[in-house]
Amino acid sequence: MRIAILVYGRLNKCVENYNNILESIGTKNDIDFFLSSDNSSETQLNEFINIYKPILYNNNPIKYDYDLSKYPGKRLETNIHNMTCHFINKNRVFSLLEEYIRTNNIYYDIVISLRIDVFIQNSFGFNDTEFNGLMDDTIYIPSGYDYVCNAINDQIAYGKIDVMKKYNSIDAKDLLEKNLSIPHPEILTLANIHFNKLQIKRVDLIYRRD
What we know:
This protein is α/β, with parallel strands linked by helices. The protein contains six helices and nine strands. It has helices at residues 14-25, 42-52, 80-104, 161-168, 172-177, 185-195; strands at 2-8, 30-36, 56-58, 110-114, 118-120, 138-142, 156-159, 199-203, 207-209.
């Protein structure tokens, strides 16, 4: 299978976790990496490029002219700037994937959105004989790691490309304007999934944050 991995955010642990990522996804698959970070150090970026050999990447500083903290319901643990960059990076990296598909007429069986600082302790199961592909309207997200009520894990997700476009192209400002969420990354992620009428399948992928 041909798999696109969309890496977003910080690049710490990218060297240590490379082999783990490949093994958990399955080394028999054709894997392409894409990256959107925001002003990672030159050392970390070069390490990532040398090891992962990304098809396309963007490490430009993120700039935005809106304030998501003005919306009601903000929880104390929410870092608005980090959350805003989180969503912008997800948008940017998916745009890179779309650009590559459009230019090269490439097809991907699976698209994975992934933090690079996770260590996966079992397998995605893409090489297993019982793997029968993905549903057209379903986003696959590991069970657990939902840290507050009415929220969902926003660290790893996968699905078909049309599903992942809806997942990655989240418009946090629009969801907040519609009163569909509060300013919180996991709650906004779940609101976006519901807004796009996606089905959710929880999968038994066990991992830890390094």
